[in-house]
Sequence to fold (517 residues):
Amino acid sequence: MEPISARTMIDAAAQAAAGNDTIRPTVERRKRLSPAALAVTNEKVPEAYSPIVIAGLVRLADFVLIAGVGIALYLGYVARRDGVHWEYIAAIIGMTVTAVISFQAADIYQVQVFRGTLKQMTRMISAWSFVFLLFIGASFFAKLGGDVSRLWLASFYVIGLALLIVGRLVLRNLVRHWARQGRLDRRTIIVGSDENGERLINALKAQEDDDSDIRLLGVFDDRNDSRALDTCAGSPKLGKIDDILEFARRTRVDLVLFALPISAETRILDMLKKLWVLPVDIRLSAHTNKLRFRPRAYSYLGNVPTLEVFEAPITDWDQVTKRLFDHVVGGLILLAAAPVMALVALAIKLDSPGPVLFRQKRFGFNNERIDVFKFRSMYHHLADPTASKVVTRNDPRVTRVGKFIRRTSLDELPQLFNVVFKSNLSLVGPRPHAVQGKLQHRLFDETVDGYFARHRVKPGITGWAQINGWRGEIDNEEKIQKRVEFDLYYIENWSVLFDLFILLKTPWALLKGENAY
Fold:
């Protein structure tokens, strides 16, 4: 029988947390945090840079630099004398690919290695020399040694190596600067302020500074007895488990790490049902567990083994791709829609007094309150900026022009400014609901368990729920539940092609004009 992997066990727990209503969280109103937690949230925290993206960009830079040097030297010396031979160009590209692969094999494409000097340089020089020895050997056995310019080859080796070294020195200074700013830190909180927590924190702190990007913010624990320490291995206790939700909304948290043993399954699942709505990585520390799984089941924080429970959605290159998609495609749509927006603005101005645009507070990424732009569709003196009252069919507050632009969703076009210029919306994503959006006097998060999980990604102008008919007025519980279900499906299955499909389907969904008043 095949052994049951840790991944299987964790996936089962994750699916239960995402799909079982009995363990969905009940999110409380904004909580008052402890003075220690407030001190952390008051710190200015810059946006994080992805180590995976940085390493990828360095690979690309190495490829361009090496190929550029080789081709430039060839065109400047050999081609001027003997003419252009594409065999040389092919050989240069082959050497470039081999060099990047060799650098990867030498394990120098890691942010921790970028910070150092000696280890990085010695590995890079060795890999670079290996590439040229390999090329010389291949030329010898292919009997092409007489056709290869020795001056070109020597210049390629020396100049290429010099530029690589200069580039690595510049990169080292950049990475160290980003590290001082905190852009490379993985801001981590520990769940469990007891002996297990102390052992975990000591294990993380015991690693060399250059080998760890973990920055411990503090610990959280529900217990009030002697088992819960006020200070755990030098890290302060910041509050209880319920406080993590508010804490993570006020400051950047990248990782929640459980210091509880696997045997505490009931406690862990009870905590997961509260925390899974956050856009963070959640892991279970395995460094003190006697039960051992296959090595591939673990992911490591330095030398500390952990088991992944939840991963933050749309990160690293996915995040870069989605942002580029939003800005490029969003900019093109904005240019194409500009004449229509001008006509709508003129119609609003002629129809009723008041401003053409208005801003409304809505939920953004990780429950951040953002200002969303819309065309004004109500009489100015009857405006409801908090959307505390749902717009219904034949609502007397809506103007004549307002009825048309709401039914066709033209009132949403100014949100392209949010996408292109403010970057707090995406073209595609869960629709941002008003912060006071209600169903029968109950706020949406009080109506649907797990509602805030839809805020694990940036909200969008259109979304999977909207093109499937779940848009407009929310007058019963099924409509808000369906929106949340479709939004969570989108988050778990996101891809650029999925975004493009939703975007192309949106006009057809708008033509139906269902539920939009």
